[in-house]
Amino acid sequence: MSETICSKCGHVGSSSDVKPEVEVERTKLPRRVMRDKIEFDNTYHPGVDGSDLVHEVHSMRVGERKLYPGAIPFTSIEISEARGNPKPLCHNCGWTTQQELDSGGYTSRLKVMYLRKNSAIWELGSNGPWMLKDEPNNGNSAWHTDYTAQQFLRKEKPNLPLVEMHKFGGPDDKFHFTIMARAKGSTIGTIWHTLTREQKNDVFQDLKHCVKEWRQITRPHMQRVDGSELRDPIIGNCDGRGCIKTGRDEEEWLENLTPAMRKGFLWLLWIRNNGSGADQCTRASWVEEVDEKVSQMKANFPRGGPYVLTHGDLHEENIFISDENEEKKFKVTAIIDWELAGFLPWWVEFFCSDLPDIMEILGDGQDIFHPGYSTEDLEKLWKTVSPVKDSWQDGGNHTFSSHKPDESNRWHRPPFCACKPYAQEYRDADLGLAPKHLDIFDVDSTDSEDDEKDDGWKKFPKQERSFLRWFNELNNYKSKKAGLDLDSPPLTIR
Questions:
Q1: Spans of all domains in the chain
Q2: Relative to the CA of 262, which of 142, 236, 293, 397 has its CA 20 to 30 Å away?
């Protein structure tokens, strides 16, 4: 196996392709070496595997490992350069050549355990009781909503099982840091299959009580807990975080959903009837037909407040349970991930939740979310909601809409190091810019409309671009390139 030594740090990591040779121990060790030899304990060096280390006792190598190629010795000039002109070895933790030489055996107890774009959760000690959220200060961040919602619940319902949180950072700071307690126990999804029916019923009853508690909190309008606009977690939701804003009531919500609903129906008529070749009268009849259909769907949509506090993403991996209590009964110890929480119509929580194991064994969802309503009642209600949801998805999903920022800008990083040449990128979507979902947008480009060869490389093929231009005309949207005659032959540059 060839040796590969990092040109930046001069070190070969234990997880790289280069391994020290294994040598069978044959030499009888001196008495003092045998007397003082101990095994490596990684309690204070989490993540370090003792079998990867070359062990010396009184400067005598013991065990089966030889020194790593290129690790030592360093010349005094190399050591002086590394300390006097330190180079970064890790752009995330800031570890430098100087610290590597002077660390004296330090191992960080902070480890990244979860990533989401430009945010992360760090573990403070291996399986320790605390974690650290590191995130940009962006009001549209899901984690921002999570913290705000949980703080609100602590005041309104102090007995709800939530994890302890402490946030650091002012409103004008670019970043916020949140110390949060690790949830105690295990998720329902992890241990549900190990519980007896009696234990499952204990969990069911406790969860039912928790949901009832937060559903007692209501508001006269749809909104987030801080009063700001709420993003749609159930219908206008193509990226998992809510693309469309709900407005204050169902009328505003439906109005925000309408452009994509119309687009979805019109697109189906376009592709089935050769829309590019259809005359104006034919297209006008399509618009009339679609608008009548959309109006009927909106009229059938359920209405009425007050709006109840809704978790918005309740499933078996964000509910923690444990029997470590005085009664020795399994109870809910923490409900996490309040990212989509807000005040929504009474029926939304049931259709946003995913608790199949609980419902299958112990009862229907209405037992938790809507006492007094039957399964038939909720199925009947969903028949008025699902057409709106399906039609919006046809016209508003991420393949038929535009998002800003759209990751058109990317900055590629240099390799992490020579021996591990992994290189990632930074994207414009991770620069703290507020996300936007657009159902009506400028689809024009300077690409040739006659270049069928490259059509597959475009987000919207030629037929879709033609339809989207017509749809823009219906909505009085004027392209920024309206002055270009995109249907004329391309110019030839000589």
A1: 110-181, 186-400
A2: 142
